[in-house]
């Protein structure tokens, strides 16, 4: 999160320390959930777009990265509890959830456990909640867009992770190499955020907690009353059929908005498209 001179930052006491959060704008409350897991919050441009859509945004750094607590446990249940704690301290009874990538999956998890706290979900380039949610093809899709040198370095970093030897610096380096491949046109990808930080422990432990909860989550979403829109770029390396479409099919009030020529970061590749999808979500909720 960029520096906030307005003084709208606040801390949320949670097990292990605090969650660092901030609010901005005027309008209906929207809780933003960034991607990762185990990455620093990087939704500045998205928050700006949503404020123009007359939303009061609340953002927070998920645990694992300072200035939030770097203590675990790092699992889905703890991340859900942290998000609810942010809403409680912000004095928000019900909010729109707007999540990107892992953050979209986290929004689905929150909906499965606390549907009464949610006005609706906008899941952007999300990991899905059915089957493997698109995780299995994500790596190969990214590697296919790299040159031989970058692909070889990524494969070496993957081997270090599989051996349990990967460091936070390795995680950041992998993101540097893969960043252009997340975009429909890698050659025109904007620079990766210069201050992106990572926690390999948070990433690996959180992802390991997803599988054991898969059956419960799918069953809960099948009866979930929360209106949901999946916004997904057709060039996203997270396969739209395995993620957004497969999950929308099991939810009673869900739609998929697919955008041609857009990859994993729609608000950067086509500014305004997230605000447009929000209009669809509001219509679905009426």
3D structure, described in words:
The protein has 286 residues and is an alpha/beta fold. The chain has helices at residues 44-52, 76-90, 102-113, 135-143, 148-162, 168-178, 200-208, 214-222, 241-250, 266-269, 273-285; strands at 9-14, 17-24, 28-33, 55-60, 95-100, 118-124, 228-233, 254-259. The chain has one domain (9-135, 200-285): Alpha/Beta hydrolase fold, catalytic domain (Rossmann fold). It has eleven helices and eight strands. An eight-stranded mixed beta sheet has the order 1-2-4-3-5-6-7-8, sandwiched between helices. The model has no long low-confidence stretch (mean pLDDT 94).
Write the layout of secondary structure elements.
Blueprint: E1 9-14, E2 17-24, E3 28-33, H1 44-52, E4 55-60, H2 76-90, E5 95-100, H3 102-113, E6 118-124, H4 135-143, H5 148-162, H6 168-178, H7 200-208, H8 214-222, E7 228-233, H9 241-250, E8 254-259, H10 266-269, H11 273-285
Parallel strand pairs: 3-4, 3-5, 5-6, 6-7, 7-8
Antiparallel strand pairs: 1-2, 2-4
Helix pairs in contact: 2-3, 5-6
